[in-house]
Structures are given as structure tokens and as C-alpha cells.
Amino acid sequence: MVGIDGYTLSVVLFFITVAIVLYVDRGKLEIKKFLGIPILFMRRTKRFMSIIDGIAQASPLFWKAFGTLGVIAGLVFMLYGVYFLSATGFAVASGLITKPAIQLILPSLSATGAEGPGYILIPFWFWLITIGIILIPHEFMHGVIARAEKIKLKSVGLLLLAVLPGAFVEPDERHLKRAKFWTRIRIFAAGSFANFLVAALVFSATTAYVWPSSVGDGIVIGSIAEGSPAALAGLIEGSTISEINEKTAKASYDEYISGKGYFFDEVGKVNPGDEIKLVAGGKAYSATLAEKEGAAYLGITYKPVYNVGEVSFLQTIQLLTMIWLFSLAVGIVNILPLGPLDGGLFFGAISEKLFGKSSAQITKFTSLVVLGLILVSFLGPVVINFLQNIPTY
Questions:
Q1: Model confidence over 121-135: pLDDT tens digits?
Q2: Same domain for 194 and 268?
Q3: pTM for the complete prediction?
């Protein structure tokens, strides 16, 4: 019998619990089927509407100003998103990008992640926490701005699309359609704006507090490759490098998220044959970099000096990075001028204001263009690689 690890078992138990809850609550669920198979489960409630209403009505003017800032941010990130997709599509068509530039973020049943063409698997509980932190502020802010603008809410709720969780705030559609232009675009932009703010807050807290309080000065040498420049220089395994090129050695969060390596801030871009000076264990060393796979090579493994537990620190940093990075990404995707996303509604309202009767065609055409750019970024490299490898006779 194949064993199951504790992490996978916890995920299985979670899904069993969800299945039991769905069964017990089946009388209050709205279920939609595809080919006769239940695929979408929606649970509407009015339980949290009083909380949303109370927050919105505490200061409607503040929330309207907040919503206006969201409109400005929405326009900026919409333009950035379209520019990014256009530049990426051009790079794919030119052969500069050979792997999918847009990736699906999916949960893994194990405690380790994985990556492949067009997808990234992240540990399930990290994925679930990240999804919750993305969805709850997003939908909550839609509701708050709607109520500050005196738009009725029919319900709020949770949904489950196959195994993908979601949330929603349901405004009165007829009331929303009759609302003024600024009211509508504030509501449409509010969700992405909440995601941008979450990303900014988590990134700032991680950069300014979590990382600096957890990582000390210095870099610890883990191992030294035999015959490498580090070995020839006399560096010792387990010693702490305190200085590199007369600069204090310290692993930074910017280096962590960029993947450039913890020496980058101190030495910048180096080439094979360059000499670097180090102080390790209080002793000075000089090493001439060799070449490996076309890059400069010192020949050590190393890690930061941790002020806290290494495993818990790395897990915390990974989770925080996922939260702000995916919040930003979801916010940008959601505000793209693509129906039926919020960005499609946002762009449609602006188009209607500017172009009147022609707005429906303009909005539809823009959605098709954006969808095409997404498909090119996601599937283009795969298709091009397939066509290039078709055997000829």
C-alpha cells in the first residue's frame, strides 16, 4: 500500500470537509452543471451585507475619493497590462521568448512546488491562503464602494468552480445600469485597486520589516567545490563572509526576488577573470573568478545569516512573496479591457461615455484583441515550437 504524507493527507481531509459542507448545505446552494456534471456551486447570503453597509456609510465621501483613486490606478494598470501583452506578443512572434510568458498558478497536493510550460504549482495551503487574501479584499471593496455610491447589494457569497474557490458581491444590476458614469467606474475599478493596495502593503512590510529583522549581516559558506576559485583562494566551509569588495555582505530581499544571487549588490555584474576580494572569518581573501556555463564562477554554495529559524523564515518569505506578487498580477489581469472581467466593464463604461452608440462594437473589438494577445503570450511559444519541430521529408 502506497503511503501518504501528512501534508497530502491534510489536503485530502480539507476536500472531504468541503464535500460534507456542500452536502449538508445543499438546499441553499445554487448548482450549475456542464454536460450533466455539477461544476459550479454558489452560496448566496446577506449575512455580511450589514458590515459592508456600515463601513461604507461611516464616511461615503472618503470612499468616493478612494474609489476615484482606484479609477486612476485602474487606467494606469490597464494601459500597462495592454502594453505588456503587446510587447510580449511581439517578443513571442520574433522568437525572443520561447516559453509561455503567462502561466497558470495551480495548487499542488504536496508541500513542494513545481514549474512547467505554462503553469506553476505551489503548495496547496500557500495557494489557498493567497487566493483568500486576493479574493476577500477584492470583493469586499466592490461592495463598500457600491454602498457608498448608494447602489443596492442583492447578496454576497462564496463559490466553488470545480476545486477552485471564489467569492462574489452581487449588486442590483438594474440599479447599477442606471447609475452615473463615475459611480459605475468607481465600482468596477474597486476590486483591482484593493489588490494593488494589498500587494503594496505586503511588499512594503516584507521589505521594511520582515526581511531586515530576520536576516543579519554576512553570508555563510555552505560548501566549496574542489578546484574552484574559492578553494584555490583558501576559503573555508562554514565561515561567514562579512565583506565583498570592501562592502558589507548582506543578502537583500531585492536579490531574493530577482534571482540574481546574494553577491549582486556588492559586486554587480562580474565576468570570468575578474578578481573579487572577500573577508571571511575575519581573514582577507582574493579570488579570481573562473567560467562555468558562460558565467562567472566562484564555486561555493551559501546562504544568509538567519536571526530566526531558517525553515520557518523561508516559508514565511515564500508565502509573503506569493501574496504580493499574485495580488498584483490578478489586479492587472482583472483590469484588462476584456469582458466579462471588471476591466471589460470599466472600459465599456468609458467607451460608452466617449463614443456613445459605437461603444459596444469598440468594447467587443478591444476584448477580442486583448484575448488574442493573451493567447499568443500563453500558447504562442508552444505552437511555434511545435511547428518548428514538424519533421519534413
A1: 889 999 999 999 999
A2: no
A3: 0.87
